[in-house]
Amino acid sequence: MGTILVETGSIWRRIFLLDPVTASEEQKAGLVRVLRSRYHKVCAGELYRIDGQPLRAPTEAITLDTGMVLIGMSECLRSSSEAEKALRDIFMMFFAGLGISREICKKIDRSELDLRQQLKMLSLWTRCRQNAPLMPVLNFAAALLCRGEPQLHETRPQTIARMARALMPDAWTIYSKTVSFFGYTVDEPRIPYVLESHRRSPPGQGAPEAEPVHERLLSA
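User: That's the sequence. What structure does it adopt?
Assistant: Structure tokens below.
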């Protein structure tokens, strides 16, 4: 049995659902359209801005977006395996929508797409779902965006925490859009409360380290 998580006050509560279901082609196509639109906005510097600045590596924003889609589908489909399967289908449709030729797309094995980071986000959400699971996910995502930045070595925990707070509104938007395709609505989190609680967290506890990544999503 899975849950849709909504926030009431400062507490995340569960809405219990029924048996697992699968994502329809229409639902997957709708999510592809959303991801494609957001991809262009990220490239234009309109989403996930940090201190008013666009991301240096917009491809990492796709990892964050698709991670939030995976989380949303896992909640709605009541099955992480079904959500992962649907996300692999969505990626193939997404690639085709970017103008990648059909011949090249045929060479991409969807089962070999690297979803380790998205699955890690889902794992964090699941593990922390009893109490505000969004921030641990965003801490992890911020760590991904920060990696490979030597100048962040001394202030890394503080920088990651600050970035996580900045990512929250746009990340929540893609999560709420995802669940809406499956007929659910979620209350918008009380972002000021969550951010204030996060600021009060002891140093070093708000930023899980990103796992090293040696491969990106497979492409031709």
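The mean pLDDT is 76.
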